[in-house]
Amino acid sequence: MSSTPGITEGAADDAVSIRPPAISDGTRLWEIARDTAVLDLNSTYAYTLWCADFTETSCVAERDGEVVGFITGYIPPSRPDTIFIWQVAVDGTHRGLGIAGRMLNGLLDRLSPQGISRLETTITPSNKASDQLFRSVARARYGTLSVADHFDSSDISPVPTRTGTNPSGSTRSPPSRPGRRSHRPS
Question: How far apart are CA 48 and CA 27, in angstroms?
């Protein structure tokens, strides 16, 4: 039974271990991100680079020798008390078991002795599962939650060159305006 804040008692799979990522995990992180069909997909190189250079601020969940989830994060240089969570993903066959919450709490526990007391992330409004995860962990760990716009969609989307297309020729809609969630102990 788990007593980790933000996790339903007994929900997390006890056979799952949480550890820092290794370079060899990069391709698997890419596969999990791709299979969510929700996250912005980076290149396999980017995920491998993340596993090489951000091991201290990221983690993976492993079950029976297979990576089944990950969190990528970093400490913004201008805010050394803050962890910014970039992506959270769990393999489809392992969702609903509390793994994302275990990873997030495990990462926060690991970073707390280094003076990390704030958590920030951006969440697309349509991503209800991510919103629920961060709200739950924020309430349980810190007792407070603030929500603010982080970027305007025009800051992160290419300017359309003609109706419905961007300079790359893609007809994909610009992303919804993500909000920043800042969590601080009260």
Answer: 7
Cα atoms found within 13 Å of the Cα of residue 83, Cβ hemisphere only? 28
Measured in degrees and rounded to the nearest 5, phi and psi for residue 183 equal: -120, 125
- Copy the structure tokens of residue 168: 């790359």
pTM: 0.77
Q: For residues 12 and 102, is the Cβ–Cβ distance under 8 A?
A: yes
Report which residue type is found at 169: G
Residue 85 has pLDDT above 90, yes or no: yes
Q: For the segment 139-177, what is each residue's pLDDT rounded down to a tens digit? A: 888 877 787 777 777 777 776 655 544 444 433 333 444
Cβ(142)–Cβ(10) below 8 Å: no
Q: How far apart are CA 9 and CA 32, in angstroms?
A: 26
Q: Is the distance from CB of 88 to CB of 104 less than 8 angstroms?
A: yes
Strands 118-123, 82-90: pairing kind: parallel
- Tokens representing 145? 């939650």
Residue pair 51/58 in contact by the 8 Å Cβ criterion: yes
Q: What is the mean pLDDT of the chain?
A: 82
> Residue 168 and residue 17: Cα distance in Å, rounded?
41
For residues 23 and 11, what is the distance between their CA atoms, to the nearest angstrom? 29
